[in-house]
């Protein structure tokens, strides 16, 4: 027993002696101390001791900041540095590039700015480099091509400009490339065709131009491909048929020539397939309905023809099926509704048929507006008028027409400071829902699913913060949101010219992009009124010059068939995941539509002006009040909103 104790003591002593002899390379010690001091992290990392001290608090797997070393050759080198989501700011210090043994550098989710120095090319042992969600600008440095051991590279959600450097084609070991929302533009360099080890490519929301790269069809290891919200053009190359390992394919918002779905017939590994607004025509291949892993299918806003294949019946995998705004016809397959299916959108197709009774009352949602599909409770109230008036050639009339409606999107009813009564719109919607207002004057429809939302399927948002630039803060504290298509229809309107007020306030995305990465998000969407695009790449926060600020946009539109259609559409642009996953797509706080009088202003404008005058001149004799009202009416003063009257450019809905 005594001998055993002595042996243990000797082993322990030798171990401590070895620890005492191992030190970090002196230049790296100086460099890491300056880096930590530069970013104000000295309170989190006490580098009064050697940075590679064994069992240091900053060396554990979950530490942040984290410093990890390799001490295998009796001299320690810093190999891992993580400064993730700490809101560090400033430019990259030169001392960082003296850590030439780094293999993993994670600076994601901060507010770092400036350009990326060419000295980054010194870190040639790097395997994992994350610079995503920051404020970097300038061009992407060609010196990244020196990091030929890279397996993962991310510089998404930044403010770069110019094209991708052709030198990225040297990164032949690269498996993951995240460049979405990075700001890069121009054609895909042909040199990127060398990246045949890629299995993940996120490249949405960039200014890419030209044809969809043919060479992507040679990336046969790809499992995830995202290319939405660019200026790329179709057709989708037939070479993509070789990408049979794909599990998540999202291409959208294409221009150029039309495509078909024939390249998909062997994509049996797919779980997510979205080709929304991709100029896809022809018929839906029956093979797609047999894909055993397919959970989300979005083929909306295309040119698909023919019937929905019978192979979609009795699917054991599909949860969300979006086929809206195509040219589909025939009878909807009777057994397309399964226990797994949560949402079905077949809106604006020439489809007929019947659905099971109580389909919409058992936790599922469906949008069949603009079709002749029947279902118990599917089109309650006056909702069926949309199909009758917008899809058929019938001229619709209303026995008792109305000349206005107002909706507090996502919230409870209220009366504004100016006397406008906004209806309740707090009904919970699903991933493909239609709801009629209690007074039957309007309908709201939502289509799309927030796939990765950590808070679950929510299609409204709210804030407790005070909204500025308005007298009606409460009006803007709730909003409807949508990941794809959000539509409001006014029903039973008198055929005339109308003023359409759209009320916005960015209440989901933070405002301070200088002090927190949570303020770096960008929301962009388009707005159509009566099928004409009136707002493109609309950014609420930019237009209002801040979050939690009221913004009103006003337009004029003609009603000729008793219905007005206000359509908010996500066109694949904007960041996806700031401050949380699935923060993107249309957002609107309120809508007010009122008939324009023959004398040039809406009836609501005159009511608002009269209310202001009454408050200001309450003690004055009646004759002076009347004169003041008349004068102010002609001047058309506006309330304390940011209000801009914009003419509607002529562009058809088919371009969405």
UniProtKB/TrEMBL annotation:
EC number: 2.7.11.1
One GO cellular component, as annotated: membrane
Entry coiled-coil feature ranges: none
UniProt subcellular location: Membrane
One Pfam assignment: LRR_8
Chloroplast among keywords: no
Residues annotated as transmembrane: 612-634
Keywords: ATP-binding, Glycoprotein, Leucine-rich repeat, Membrane, Nucleotide-binding, Phosphoprotein, Receptor, Repeat, Signal, Transferase, Transmembrane, Transmembrane helix
Catalytic activity: L-seryl-[protein] + ATP = O-phospho-L-seryl-[protein] + ADP + H(+); L-threonyl-[protein] + ATP = O-phospho-L-threonyl-[protein] + ADP + H(+)
Protein known as: non-specific serine/threonine protein kinase
């Amino acid at each position: 027993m005594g001998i055993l104790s002595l042996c243990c003591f000797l082993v322990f002593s030798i171990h401590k002696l070895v620890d005492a002899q191992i030190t970090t390379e002196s230049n790296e010690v100086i460099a890491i101390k300056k880096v930590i001091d530069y970013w104000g992290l000295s309170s989190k990392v006490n580098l009064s001791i050697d940075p590679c001290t064994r069992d240091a608090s900053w060396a554990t797997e979950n530490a942040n900041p984290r410093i990890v070393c390799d001490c295998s050759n009796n001299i320690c080198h810093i190999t891992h540095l993580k400064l993730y989501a700490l809101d560090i700011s400033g430019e990259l210090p030169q001392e960082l590039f003296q850590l030439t043994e780094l293999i993993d550098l994670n600076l994601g989710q901060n507010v770092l700015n400036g350009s990326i120095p060419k000295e980054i090319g010194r870190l040639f042992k790097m395997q994992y480099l994350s610079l995503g969600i920051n404020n970097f600008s300038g061009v992407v440095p060609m010196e990244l091509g020196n990091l030929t051991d890279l397996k993962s590279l991310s510089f998404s959600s930044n403010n770069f400009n110019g094209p991708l450097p052709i030198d990225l084609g040297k990164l032949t070991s690269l498996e993951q490339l995240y460049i979405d929302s990075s700001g890069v533009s121009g054609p895909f360099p042909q040199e990127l065709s060398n990246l045949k080890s890629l299995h993940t490519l996120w490249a949405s929301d960039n200014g890419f131009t030209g044809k969809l790269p043919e060479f992507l069809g040679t990336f046969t290891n790809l499992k995830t491909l995202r290319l939405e919200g660019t200026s790329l053009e179709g057709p989708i190359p037939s070479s993509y048929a070789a990408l049979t390992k794909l599990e998540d394919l999202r291409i959208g918002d294409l221009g150029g020539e039309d495509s078909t779905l024939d390249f998909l017939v062997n994509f049996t590994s797919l779980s997510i397939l979205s080709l929304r607004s991709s100029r896809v025509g022809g018929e839906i291949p029956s093979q797609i309905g047999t894909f055993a892993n397919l959970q989300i299918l979005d083929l909306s806003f295309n040119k698909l023809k023919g019937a929905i294949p019978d192979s979609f019946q009795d699917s054991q995998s599909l949860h969300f099926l979006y086929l809206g705004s195509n040219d589909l016809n025939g009878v909807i397959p009777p057994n397309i509704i399964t226990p797994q299916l949560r949402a079905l959108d077949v809106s604006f197709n020439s489809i007929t048929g019947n659905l099971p009774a109580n389909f919409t009352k058992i936790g599922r949602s469906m949008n069949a507006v603009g079709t002749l599909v029947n279902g118990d409770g599917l089109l309650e109230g006056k909702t069926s008028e949309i199909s009758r008036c917008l899809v058929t050639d019938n001229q619709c009339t209303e026995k008792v027409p109305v000349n206005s409606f107002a909706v507090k999107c996502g919230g409870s009813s209220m009366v504004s400071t100016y006397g406008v009564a906004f209806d309740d719109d707090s009904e919970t919607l699903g991933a493909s829902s239609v709801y009629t207002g209690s007074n039957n004057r309007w309908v709201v429809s939502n289509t799309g699913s927030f796939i990765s939302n950590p808070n679950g399927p929510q299609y409204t948002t709210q804030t407790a913060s005070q909204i500025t630039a308005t007298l009606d803060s409460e009006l803007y504290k709730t909003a409807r949101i949508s990941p794809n298509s959000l539509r409001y229809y006014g029903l039973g309107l008198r055929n005339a010219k109308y003023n359409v007020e759209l009320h916005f306030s960015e209440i989901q995305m933070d405002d301070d992009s200088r002090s927190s990465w949570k303020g770096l998000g960008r929301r962009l969407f388009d707005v159509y009124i009566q099928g004409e695009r009136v707002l493109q790449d609309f950014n609420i926060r930019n237009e209002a010059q801040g979050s939690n600020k009221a913004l009103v946009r006003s337009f004029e539109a003609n009603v000729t068939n008793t219905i007005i259609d206000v359509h908010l559409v996500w066109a694949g642009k904007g960041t996806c995941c700031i401050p949380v996953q699935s923060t993107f797509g249309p957002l609107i706080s309120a809508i007010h539509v009122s008939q324009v009088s023959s004398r040039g202003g809406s009836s609501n404008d005159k009511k608002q002006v009269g209310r202001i005058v009454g408050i200001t001149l309450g003690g004055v004799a009646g004759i002076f009040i009347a004169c003041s009202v008349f004068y102010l009416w002609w001047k058309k003063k506006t309330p304390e909103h940011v209000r801009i009257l914009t003419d509607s450019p002529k562009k058809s809905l088919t371009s969405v």
